[in-house]
């Protein structure tokens, strides 16, 4: 079998790991337009930006692991096109790779600003190692930082900046930070946290222009406010890299490449996994695209399982994490559609869990400094055990509460 993998993140690395576990004896080629082996992206806005970890610690698996799995690496090369009839992938250097099976793990790219001044120097996005490398020198010397976007990336960057004493302003276009992914109570927790650490959080601030001659020196918002900046960092979302698939005639949407429960596209010999895949989640009974390490890894496993003859379906419960000011936020499940929010712990002491219920069952949990709640919430969500607020607020250790509920 000839297998081609296109991508440079967690999904691509997991494909290699899974192939090695299967003792794959065919021919495999991994193509990435970045010059390094697939690496971890979460540290780019945290420990790698701060310098707490080096580039040598970012690879998910070492180059030798690809060699031992029989995978040829073609790095720093863009995949230009897919010929589904000939079953080939053409690379930017003109090389053509034949395949029997193709896995697209192309991920996404940072959404860019489109306002006047958006092309000025001093405006940065974080998606790749090169992005972080390019901004580090300016970041170290900057005194005033404006972060556009109050999502996880923006808040993580703000936290790193405050640790080094910079003046930081976060501009969020909607009425609260993290508004797309958490309840208002959790948004309020993180607003209070960042404010206590010295960050200025500004909501309902739609950016209309970036000021500057040679480089950005201020950000203007729709209400006329002006925020001076030595540098600007933007975190306003991800655009899936689905163009290669679309141009090959695969089914895509603006939100990703459509796949079935085996991570197959409408071409049974082509799979799409990770941040670029658009799929139906059986637990939540809706179509979605998930940007997480867990999703990338688990979908890659399913794709390789199916290629190797196992009839595995993707049904993994989503989970995520974020680190800010030494506090670990662990998220289990997806909270959209909840009808009850239960708060366990003490937000003022920075140790609290927020449980999302729907129709008397847990569908998600946001756990800050509460590992037991996170681990057991995943079990309760998966089991769909009926639960009440009073049961969740019992002052016993949460492990005992969950054990009783799960029988």
Summarize the structure.
The protein is of the alpha/beta class and 407 residues long. Helix content is 26%, strand content 30%.
Question: Top keywords for this entry?
Answer:
27 strands; FAD/NAD(P)-binding domain; 3 domains; alpha/beta; 5-stranded parallel sheet
Describe the structure.
- There is one protein chain.
- The chain is built from eleven helices and 27 strands.
- β4 and β5 form a beta hairpin.
- The chain is globular, with a radius of gyration of 22 Å.
- The strands form seven sheets. It has a five-stranded parallel β-sheet.
- The chain is of the alpha/beta class and 407 residues long.
How is this fold's topology laid out?
Elements: E1 2-6, H1 10-21, E2 27-32, H2 47-50, H3 63-68, E3 71-75, E4 79-83, E5 88-91, E6 96-98, E7 101-104, E8 108-110, E9 123-125, H4 129-141, E10 144-148, H5 152-163, E11 167-171, H6 184-196, E12 200-202, E13 207-211, E14 218-221, E15 226-228, E16 231-234, E17 238-240, H7 243-247, E18 252-253, E19 256-258, E20 270-272, E21 277-281, E22 286-288, H8 293-307, E23 319-324, E24 327-333, E25 340-346, E26 351-358, E27 361-368, H9 371-383, H10 389-392, H11 398-406
Helix pairs in contact: 1-8, 9-11
């Amino acid at each position: 079998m000839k297998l081609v993998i296109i991508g440079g993140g967690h999904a691509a690395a997991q494909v290699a790991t899974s192939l090695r576990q299967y003792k794959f004896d065919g021919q495999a080629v991994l193509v990435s337009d970045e010059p390094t082996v697939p690496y971890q992206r979460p540290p780019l806005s945290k420990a790698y930006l701060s310098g707490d970890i080096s580039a040598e610690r970012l690879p998910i698996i070492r180059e030798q692991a690809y060699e031992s799995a029989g995978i040829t690496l073609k790095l720093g090369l863009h995949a230009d096109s897919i010929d589904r009839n000939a079953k080939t992938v053409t690379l930017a250097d003109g090389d053509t790779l034949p395949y029997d099976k193709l896995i697209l793990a192309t991920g996404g790219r940072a959404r860019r600003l489109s306002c006047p001044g958006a092309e000025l120097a001093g405006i940065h996005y974080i998606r790749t190692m090169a992005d972080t490398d390019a901004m580090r020198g300016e970041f170290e010397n900057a005194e005033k930082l404006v972060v556009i976007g109050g999502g996880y990336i923006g808040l993580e960057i703000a936290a790193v900046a405050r640790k080094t004493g910079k003046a930081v302003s976060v501009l969020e276009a909607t009425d609260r930070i993290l508004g797309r992914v958490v309840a208002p109570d959790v948004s309020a927790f993180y607003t209070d946290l960042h404010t206590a650490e010295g960050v200025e959080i500004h909501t309902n601030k739609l950016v209309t222009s970036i000021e500057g001659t040679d480089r950005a020196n201020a950000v203007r918002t729709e209400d006329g406010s002006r925020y001076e900046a030595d540098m600007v960092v933007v975190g306003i979302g991800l655009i899936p890299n689905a163009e290669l698939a679309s141009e090959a005639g695969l089914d895509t949407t603006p939100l990703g490449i459509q796949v079935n429960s085996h991570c197959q596209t409408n071409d049974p010999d082509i799979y799409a996994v990770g941040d670029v895949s658009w799929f139906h989640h059986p637990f939540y009974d809706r179509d979605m695209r998930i940007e997480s390490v867990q999703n990338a890894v688990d979908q890659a496993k399913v794709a390789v399982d199916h290629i190797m003859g196992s009839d595995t379906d993707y049904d993994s419960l989503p989970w995520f994490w974020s680190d800010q000011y030494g506090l670990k936020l662990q998220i289990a499940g997806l909270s959209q559609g909840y009808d009850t929010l239960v708060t366990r712990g003490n937000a003022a002491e920075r140790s609290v869990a927020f449980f999302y219920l729907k129709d008397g069952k847990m569908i998600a949990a946001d756990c800050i400094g509460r590992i037991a709640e996170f681990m057991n919430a995943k079990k309760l969500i998966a089991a769909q055990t009926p639960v009440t607020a009073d049961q969740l607020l019992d002052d016993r250790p949460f492990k005992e509460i969950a054990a009783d509920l799960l029988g």
